[in-house]
Design a protein that fits this description.
32% of the residues lie in helices and 17% in strands. It is of the alpha+beta class and 438 residues long. It folds into 2 domains: 277 residues, 3-Layer(bba) Sandwich (FAD/NAD(P)-binding domain); 145 residues, Elongation Factor Tu (Ef-tu), domain 3.
Amino acid sequence: MEKRLLIIGAGLAGCEAAWQAAQQGVGVRLFEMKPVRFSPAHKSPNLAELVCSNSLRSAQISSAIGLLKEELRLAGSLIMEAADATKVPAGKAHAVDRELFSRFITNRIESHPLIDVVRQEVTKIPDNDITIVATGPLSSEDIISHLKSIVGQGFLSFYDAIAPIVDAESINMDIVFRQSRYGPIGEGDYLNCPMDKKQYESFVQALLAGEKVPLKDFESAKYFEGCLPIEVMAERGPDTLRYGPMKPVGLTDPRTGKQPWAVVQLRAENRQETMFNLVGFQTKLKWNEQKRIFRMIPGLEEAEFVRLGSIHRNTFVCAPRVLNPDLTLQTLSSCYLAGQISGVEGYVESTAMGLLAGINAARKLRSKEPVIPPPVTAVGALISHLTEANPETFQPMNVNFGLFPRLTRKMPKRFRGEAYAKRALKAWHEFLDSLEQS
């Protein structure tokens, strides 16, 4: 019998890897421990469950994340197909209906004739089978312990927090107004909860005094800068939130005709707009404290919380010490890492690592050489970060143009994104063409 590719974990990266390998004609056994066992943050038995935000960030191709998404689309990404099919209004961002998104991917994976989904937990990585580990930032202790025995102690961890979601019917629309930043009042993809100076200062004080979920004895608070808990941001100074997730710039309260002192923005969780999440309000406050403090927000006094925020540990390898550019482990060439455990940050970045791991693992099973995208592409820039960053200071990274090789000529900042994208897409097309020919 022809050997199959084994994939451990059916999140975004695992599903993308399975899809890419199967599309190359390789049989896949995709292991998922849900619903036998759930992580602290997962609730649905469906594959590719989104547990943090429902946003895939900017949709503009002149942004690094928008460029990465376009590269994935061109490579036939299942995750991007699902994201485009389940999109919800979010201004210049690309947000999805998370339930439809997960269901779309589950149906496609389970119906593929070359993919066998096995609902059981895997605690050890096979020595001889070609395997992709895509267990994510919430990997179980057993699989992490075994992975550590293979790569050594080259691990880091940080803590990520989830933002609350409120029922739309519980929002007071006599206070909350609809407007996208700099857009016309009454239109746009965001609801805005306006605060005056006194309300803002009281809210910040409540955040600072609120009771938090304590860390365990063996844990230390290493937060990812791109996803800080709201109360941690508040600790950095009284105006930090006004210049961060609560900035009022470009918004006008129709009741006063003026810009509020601060604003809490709400973004739709689904197409029906029956649920809204508090944008940038990931938190580690205790649940009762969340209800008390977040109901101080004007318009949310009677808020009904569909989901409260929570905190969980993210685990990832120190990639420069343990990974090769094709995403194989330096100490076990039959094993690939994909997704956030590989050392990238973000939904789309995790998907990209799944795509590349799936392609290369399938190529290995077909006795073909691995492929590495050019560093001028978004996928290639991420690989460069994983394998070339300083291991002493390595941290997970969202894709950004700072990871790309510099442009050959100087130009005004407003034109750089487009120039990076044009260069990257040319190289990406050539990369895809070479794949078809090899």
